[in-house]
Input
Amino acid sequence: MSTGRGLEGIVAGDTDICSVAQGQLIYRGYEIHDLAENATFEGVAFLLLEGRKPTDAELARFSKELVAERALPTAVTDYLHAAGPMLRQGQSTPTAVPMDVLRSAVSILGNLDPESQDNSAGANLLKSKRLLAKIPTIIGHMQRIIEGKPLVDPATGGDPSLSHAGNLLYLMTGERPSPEAERVTDVSLILYAEHDYNASTFTSRVIAATLSDMHGAITGAIAALKGPLHGGANEAAMEMLREIGDYVDAGHTVDEFMQRAFTEKRKLMGFGHRVYKNGDHRAPILHTLGRKMAEARGPEYLRWFELGEQVQDIMLHQKQIHPNVDFPCGMTYYAMGIPVPQYTPIFVASRVSGWAAHIMEQHANNRLIRPVSNYTGPEITPWNG
Ligand code: COA
Output
């Protein structure tokens, strides 16, 4: 018996939620370009969680429910304060990154949730909305603590008049974002919301399939998303571009960097994809929006897109490998002044909607997920032989 390494090409189950396999990216029957242009993140989250496009009244009610759930319990805020020294560049090296702290904060939310042990559809939906509403507040408060600044509106979890995307930016900075920044962030959240049986979503379904709880499954999914081969690539891509920027500043060219990377067989972060071999549908959407924002903000922001475009051209012509959504995301969030270690937590603020939809789908029609392995170890040997 043998298996494709990394389960490549294996169909691991059915889902009504998303398809990436037919040359298009579809959320419950709606195509991603259409959603990016015409929907809001809240509308997409409703679609994923409730299983249908909301009416205007349903969307308004859903948005209001999220606003009402934004504030954090004191125990979570206390934990974020306690985590400050673990995150800060002080005299010693930080022992945690924001993804680690977000993971633990979500786990604590589970300890406090009145429905934590209830896997019914109704309880799962309530918990999904609470998590969706509170994760941006965790990110915002954490960033303020890292910067040694007061929390933004801890009693309400932000400004009730702001959208999910706008409030996320506001909670991090204390400043209400421009409509352009809010819209670009909103589109990035739409693009990140759902992606079929990717590693973190599959993790969440494996956990849910043991009949474990929503918060546990989301906590596990956050751990899976952190890795640079998955969601962590948006941070890693920007770090790599900064390295390229330093290299160019030292008198070299992007091409020299790339040829050295190819010789060293280095993985270029933000490139390649397990499923999309002819390009990630989401990448050009975000690249176009991010570039426009960088152009408006000035040459020091546009520079990263210009460097990134050189990297993309060389990758495509010499390796036939396209950028994935994490590549333009890195440059876009950088152009918006978002601190790099918060890029993957922001991915969580969106993907939690997809994870929760999958966890509910798993619980609604459950069977334990338990594959077998192909044993390649030694032959049986007597212990006392
Ligand atoms: N940089 C350089 N080479 C890459 C590459 C990258 N980012 N992505 C794939 N390749 C190369 C591989 O080295 C391999 O070459 P080989 O056949 O000469 O060994 C070939 O392309 C096939 O790649 P493979 O490793 O089989 O792809 P995979 O499906 O196992 O991995 C990723 C997919 C996403 C893990 C991989 O492309 C990657 O590590 N990308 C960088 C991290 C990233 O951006 N992740 C976010 C994904 S949305």
In short: The domain at 20-227+352-364 is CATH 1.10.580.10 (Citrate Synthase; domain 1). The pocket of coenzyme A is lined by residues 6, 229-230, 233, 267-274, 321, 324, 326 (CB under 6 Å). Residues 291 and 306 are 9 Å apart (CA to CA).
